[in-house]
UniProtKB/TrEMBL annotation, chain A:
This is Phospholipid/glycerol acyltransferase domain-containing protein. Pathway: Lipid metabolism; Phospholipid metabolism. GO terms for molecular function: glycerol-3-phosphate O-acyltransferase activity. It is found in: Membrane. Belongs to the 1-acyl-sn-glycerol-3-phosphate acyltransferase family.
TrEMBL record, chain B:
This is EF-hand domain-containing protein. Keywords: Calcium, Cell membrane, Cytoplasm, Lipoprotein, Membrane, Metal-binding, Myristate, Nucleus, Phosphoprotein, Protein transport, Repeat, Transport. The keyword Repeat applies. It is found in: Cell membrane; Cytoplasm; Nucleus. Residues 26-61, 110-145, 151-186 form the EF-hand domain. It holds the Pfam family EF-hand_7. The lineage of its organism: Eukaryota, Metazoa, Chordata, Craniata, Vertebrata. It comes from Amphiprion ocellaris. SMART domains: EFh (SM00054). The keyword Cell membrane applies. GO terms for biological process: protein transport. It comes from the Eukaryota.
């Protein structure tokens, strides 16, 4: 019996050995070596084109299936459901009053019972559709991308489509996910190891040079770990030393995307666990700005450390996400003014993800970090565009808030995102009463018919 | 996320809601998606907190009153039917509806029902009369701290004086309708859908 198994065992061992070797060689040649040198074979772009064709076919099949059953498809509308006129409080109430009386407006009484119509309608409009709450959940797609998590019409799927979907599931979880997880571990492991090694060198040009190379290489491996297909535009505007790079925030992957194309000094709070290990080793190789939890509350301390960093021209540009939280990549929300008060040159960057291949938005109330990363690694790909916008500085007579809004408008315009004044903090917190008080003040002015200098 | 929305709403339900409210099929599915995205507890009903989470509603001076209009007497939860029934008041009046069978029950978005919605925003205790106190309360909500009690009181008095025809120092629904008979209620209390 033993003799029977031995040669068989040997054969299995040999086969396994060969396949592992082949696997790792392919990995090395096609993924890791290009990552080190920053070149690309173009495999990912080919993959992207193939996927798009398949998605279009899938959508057509679903539409055909729905038509056969004579049902209406659920079509998500990315634009508004209702028509909202941008008229002001004063204009609208005047209009309501005008329609109700033939008297001259100046002689009309200050209050009309019909004034309530304005508030009632605005209130119900916001119940039907508002600009803020929909930014904190994933964007809905018009075509189906063969991920169950984004399909709303799955009772129209034919057999062929189900087979395709099953195949897709197999490929994603059986082949892509293990590959990506391996790469991710390799990338992170190398980052920690090599930055610690570089950290042992004395400060100087050699250290900076090596640190740059190490960081870029490891981030590029991570980019391949996510199958991220990134298009960089206007690279001549890339951030320079002594500047601050600001970008819109959709997910923690934003950092990897930007850092694989240039070197930045990261800003953030020191975490425990694996994150903390990575942070501590990164700072050995080049100066990042990490804060203790207690220091984060002290705004002056934060501002001082950031301005010290930007003044030292040998240090890398700082990367900051002024929204303070992840938004779903359909809009840009209020920028916190802290980074705009420092007085350094601001390099705005717009990041726009293509939602057809995988939704990059991190809904932190729904998914934890690990769950999110697994979802990312089991999507088809992460496709995005990065635009480096020309640098901006604060102008004469402009305060930090106006400057922040100007930068935000530029980023929104370039990325094709909606520019909102609302605070991203509304994801978790309540809206401030000052906004309600503003409305009340406006209405009071109408009642008392005072001039616009009402305090 | 509203992702499973349209598949949870059965065709029969959609038909019933269509008959009751007059919304179209696509409008109903769209609003159902909105309902589920507001329903954070995922139990098929909305509570007052779910509404208050909408920032634009929270800053509306009459926000709380509007939210109240969705909840029937003494209840804390509203289901999708109730949600749609209240929203139906704001559906625009179409021309072909005006010539409908006059003996059929009045549609939810008729001029009278729109005015009733507004009336109920004033009439907090639902006794079918707007008293001086109720009027003052609503005025106070709309102006905040910017107008003194005396001024507000005189505004309220003047309004009641003009509207009150039977001398009971409060405004009944019929008096309310009379005061607003020239106002273009159909347009001002309607929300137009884009699809």
């Amino acid at each position: 019996m033993e003799l029977f198994f031995n040669p068989f065992d040997n054969l299995v061992c040999i086969l396994l050995g060969i396949s592992f070797t082949v696997w790792f060689t392919l990995l090395l040649v096609f993924i890791i070596v290009p990552a080190i040198f920053g070149v690309s074979f173009g495999i990912r772009r080919l993959y992207m084109k193939t996927l798009l064709k398949i998605f279009e076919w899938a959508t057509l099949r679903i539409e055909r299936g729905a038509k056969e059953k004579n049902h209406l498809l659920y079509k998500p509308y990315s634009n508004a459901i209702i028509a909202r006129e941008p008229t002001s409080l004063e204009e609208e109430i005047k209009e309501i009053r005008r329609s109700g009386s033939n008297k001259d407006l100046d002689a009309a009484p200050e209050f009309e019972m019909s004034d309530i119509f304005y508030f009632a309608r605005r209130g119900v409009e916001s119940i039907m559709d508002d600009e803020v709450t929909k930014r904190f959940s994933a964007e809905e797609l018009e075509s189906w991308n063969l991920l169950t998590r984004s399909n709303y019409n799955f009772h129209y799927i034919s057999l062929r489509l189900t087979v395709l979907w099953g195949l897709g599931l197999l490929i994603r979880y059986g082949f892509l996910l293990p590959l990506r997880v391996t790469l991710a571990f390799t990338g992170v492991g190398l980052l920690v190891f090599l930055t610690s090694v570089v950290g042992l060198l004395p400060n100087g040009r050699m250290k900076n040079f090596l640190s740059e190379k190490v960081h870029l290489m490891c981030y590029r491996i991570c980019v391949r770990a996510l199958t991220a297909i990134i298009t960089y535009h206007d690279s001549e505007n890339k951030p320079k030393n002594g500047g601050i790079c600001v970008a819109n925030h959709t997910s923690p992957i934003d950092v990897i995307i930007l850092a694989s194309d240039g070197c930045y000094a990261m800003v953030g709070q020191i975490h425990g666990g694996l994150m903390g290990v990575i942070q501590r080793s990164m700072v050995k190789a080049c100066p990042h700005v990490w804060f203790e939890r207690s220091e984060v509350k002290d705004r002056h301390l934060v501002a001082k450390r950031l301005s010290d960093h930007v003044e030292d021209k040998s240090k890398l540009p700082i990367l900051i996400f002024p929204e303070g939280t992840c938004i779903n990549n359909t809009s840009v929300m209020m920028f916190k003014k802290g980074s705009f008060e420092i007085g350094a040159t601001v390099y705005p960057v717009a990041i726009k993800y293509d939602p057809r291949f995988g939704d990059a938005f991190w809904n932190s109330s729904k998914f934890g970090m690990v769950n999110y990363l697994l979802r990312m690694m089991s999507s088809w790909a992460i496709v995005c565009s990065v635009w480096y916008l020309p640098p901006m500085s604060r102008e004469e007579g402009e305060d930090a808030v106006q400057f922040a809004n100007r930068v935000k408008a530029a980023i929104a315009r370039q990325g094709g995102l909606v520019d909102l004044l609302w605070d991203g903090g509304l994801k978790r917190g309540k809206v401030k009463d000052t906004f309600k008080e503003e409305q009340q003040k406006l209405y009071s002015k109408m009642l008392l018919r005072l001039s616009w200098d009402f305090p | 996320m509203g992702s499973r929305a349209s598949t949870l709403l059965r065709e029969e339900e959609i038909e019933e809601i269509k008959k009751e409210t007059g919304f179209s099929h696509s409008q109903i599915t769209r609003l159902y998606s909105r309902f589920t995205s507001l329903d954070k507890g995922e139990n098929g009903t909305l509570s007052r907190e779910d509404f208050q989470r909408i920032p634009e509603l929270a800053i509306n001076p009459l926000g709380d009153r509007i939210i109240n209009a969705f909840f029937p007497e003494g209840e804390d939860q509203v289901n999708f039917r109730g949600f749609m029934r209240t929203l139906a008041h704001f559906r625009p009046i179409e021309d072909n509806e005006k010539s409908k069978n006059p003996t059929a029950s009045e549609p939810l978005n008729s001029r009278t029902n729109k005015l009733l919605f507004a009336f109920r925003l004033y009439d907090l205790d639902r006794d079918d009369k707007i008293s001086r106190d109720e009027l003052l309360q609503v005025l106070r909500m709309m102006v905040g701290v910017n107008i003194s009690d005396e001024q507000l009181g005189s505004i309220a008095d003047r309004t009641i004086q003009e509207a009150d025809t039977n001398g009971d120092n409060s405004i009944s629904f019929n008096e309310f309708i009379k005061v607003l008979e020239k106002v273009d209620v159909e347009q001002k209390m309607s929300i137009r859908f884009l699809h």
